[in-house]
Amino acid sequence: MTRSTLLVIALILCGPLAARPATADTDDLSRSLVKVSVTAQEFDAYMPWQKRKPHARDGYGIAVGPHRILTSEALVRNGTLIELQRPQSGERLAAQVVESDHQIGLALLEVSPDVAPFVAVDVRPDRQFDADTPLQVVQLDNTLALQTGGAQVLSVAMTELPSAPYPVLLYTLLTDIAVNDQCTIVMSRDRLAGIVLQYNGNRRTAEVLPASVLARFLADADAPPYAGFAMAGFQWRPLVDPTRRAYLGATETTDGVLILACMPGTGAAEILKPNDVLLEWDGHRIDNLGYYVDPDLGRISMPHLIKFRRAPGERVPLRVIREGKELELDLLLARHRDTDALVPENTLREQAPYLIEGGLVLLELNGHFLRARGSDWTRSIDPRLAHIYLTRGTSPEKPGDRVVILAGVLPDRINQDYGMFRQEIVTSVNGQPIRNMRDIYRVIGPKGHVERVGLQGIGIELVLDTAALTEANERISRLYRIPRLKNPPQPLETD
Amino acid sequence: MKITNGKMWPLLLILAWALLPVVSVNAARSRFTPLLSGVIKIYATFQSEDYAMPWQAGRPGNGTGTGFVIAKRRILTNAHVVSNARFLEVSRDGQPGRYLARVEYIAHDCDLAALTVDDPSFFDGITPLELAKAIPVLNDEVTVLGYPTGGDRISVTRGVVSRIDYSGYSHSGVDQHLVLQVDAAINPGNSGGPILFDRRVVGLAFQGLAWADNIGYAIPLPVIRHFLKDIEDGTYNGYPELGAFFLPARNSALRRSLALPADESGVVIYYIDPFGSALGMLRTGDVLLAIDGHDIANDGNIALNGNHVLFAELLERKQWGDKVVFRVWRDGNVAQLTVPLINPCDPFVFRNEYDQRPEYFVYAGLVFAPLSRGFLRTVGDRKSDPNTQQLSYYRSYAKQDDLTEDRDQFVVLIRRLPHSVNTYTGDFLNGIVARVNGRRISTLKDVEDAFASPQEGYHVVAFEGMKQTLVLDAAAADHAAPAIMGRYGVPAPSHYRDQGKAGGHP
Fold first, then answer.
1. Domains located in chain A, CATH noted
2. Is there a contact between A321 and A248 (Cβ–Cβ < 8 Å)?
3. By percentage, how much of chain A surpasses pLDDT 90?
4. How high is the ipTM of this complex?
5. Residues B91, B155, B172, B191: which is the catalytic one?
6. pLDDT of residue A233
7. How far is B219 from chain A (nearest CA, A)?
8. N or C terminus of chain B: which is more exposed, having fewer CB within 10 Å?
9. What secondary structure does DSSP assign to B322-335, as a single string?
10. Residues 247 to 306 of B: which have CB under 8 A from any A CB?
11. Nearest neighbour of A391 by CB, restricted to B256, B386, B427
12. What are the structural domains of chain B?
């Protein structure tokens, strides 16, 4: 047996055990790929005046400029310290978030210009990759050495982000090495093809945000102000049922989806109506399941058309069937803001506006507050609050509407016997009807107090002793160690 | 073999010690044995309803419980021992025969039932148990008789009264009454058995507490007496509901806002139940100062026979149709208000239901039924689905959020019997029906009536909290309806109960 055959056998034996050494193409990545270590700390959903225990997250980032690193938003979310490490280096470089967008799951970091520059990878999407495209997954092993493995595209779809309730374009890849952290990168020859947002070890599949999305995010971030990605502002359902199509007068064609509702204040609310059948968006025919044929990707669902083929501020032509007649309409796209919702998700777990008066904790209901009870939160939360969130959380009757709740009662003699009204909905303060936290701050003015609180379906007001309130607030603030009793929504208008 | 005197003596001594207690036990037994004759074993074959497929019944099951004879050939037991019974037998300890029994009165709101045996020979030689004059006090030693699991014959356990308190009665799932907590072992099969103090009945064993040691609950004498008095007129009306929710009048700012004088005490009403007796009589913001002449303290308690008890205990003693007199602080004045304790049957408390077939209506494979506790149990934990979660909301907030306005039932699309005529209706499962063909749905019967008048060839069903409507081709649905029932074995398109609305509980 020759020496070379022995070597081949050895390689075959080792192959499944160890990842292949970095190829020539990916060698250069040693000056581009970094390990990202994040210490993160979130606000407490129930006690928004304080933060929860800090925790650590690890992942990767990839250089897109001499001092700029692209990574996933979920990795750096609520970061109190972000540090980068080059391959095979112990040095930790502090980084700052320049731009982040949780609606597409990306963040851009920056390090000090004094740091030796990174080598930026090419993020231009050369073409849409498919099952035949050779792809490589690149990450670091335990010794911070580069490690690569092959990957193959299984499917592409608009899928909800692992870290936020928004659909994005995600490729599902079958990888031949186990992805070991968030944001492992995917290369197509010498170009960045995508970053891994989620990995399933049992199936060995990775959910990858493709270069087309990365490139657009970077272009947007390079030209401030950041414009973001558009949202349509309407809810829709497939419209396959022939009976319902006949009922809606949409029998001329089998295409089109059903518009259910529009968010107030959006472009959609101005021109679309419930029961409209949406046939065409921006010149693309929508089928009855909500798919269209994309020139680059093939058949993919409509949210891609809205989110990734156009930008906020652009107008798109639509074709709808309304009461049996086809109409051409024109819709102004806008960026979706979480704060447009009746119950904001608060995916970022930011500090929610609050007001503590006489130990009564007033908060605007938000997704963070609801979900803080764990995965089966719908069972443990007050059913009314869960119901509002699930059935109309995105649809305020009027823009700016929120659900203000008595989130808690910090027991004190001033609020004696009021603890039983926890989780009730606040409808008035000092006799004035209120729709949101802003209204409350407006009602009480800069120096005033909440003296009476009206609750939905409760026949009496919770009354606080005005004379004793200042002293009680001081006492509660001291005993419960609350640094600030007031956290008004920002910016608070002074009108 | 010879036995010396020296060894004989101690042996005799031991015998004497052994005999003495036996003699005294015999004397006790002679007083105790007649009590045992009145404690009988109940054998029930029951069949609960199938709320998921309401046109058919669930699987039959068997259970045993205990009852005891009180005067007039009447056997007292728990409602839950004989609920949904299809076949009921009783036997006496140490006697071979089983006798057919039947339910005379059943009170699901306090878990009591009165049975009788038509064969008079069953009662031969039975000494009925006597009810005590008064409820025992804490630490009184009580005896529990019954036929618990672990053997066939009668069993006796002992303990003390550990607590007397208000607590939930799990049989109905919603009612609260006085309970007697004892530390004697109470096990399955004890249900319905007497609890004796000084050889008289002071309670009836009825439920235990899972994950706790030595906590058994008994229905105390006042609740038993209330039941017996209620059925004297030949019908059981149940407990009246005042329907006034209150908080203590302790908070100084709250008191000041109501201008309540410092020397007055009581409770502040914050909610009036639209199905309670207080509706139209009491108002939110009223302060209840006294009930039937007993001053109410700021914690809601009154002094009653030397005890400090919740004022609701006085209401507990009232029969349906009685009156209660409140001294009320209203708008800065004291008023005397007499409230008749009469309230309509409340469909929105969602009690557990027994001995009643669930209502349903099937059309074109869509099964509609009123929201009930039984149905909610079948949907279980799937609460992340908005439609199912909405059911919990409607159940909990029916009244407080005025969801009951203009409705007598919440009608739910509980099931789809799949057929091509209803293929695209999956989104609506567990939805609460708002309108059918433009008609507002107040009861299940309205659904059937509304399906009789389609709109321009379509049936259109709107649901609460849903932005889309269910649409059926009326002609196709009419045509398919009988075939669907045949295919899925639904014997009748609907079952309705008599909509008796006045008067107490079913």
1. 20-227 (2.40.10.120), 230-335 (2.30.42.10), 339-487 (3.20.190.20)
2. yes
3. 76
4. 0.87
5. B191
6. 86
7. 28
8. N
9. -EEEEEEEETTEEE
10. 247-248, 250-254, 256-257, 268-272, 283-285
11. B386
12. 39-123 (2.40.10.10), 141-233 (2.40.10.10), 244-340 (2.30.42.10), 360-495 (3.20.190.20)
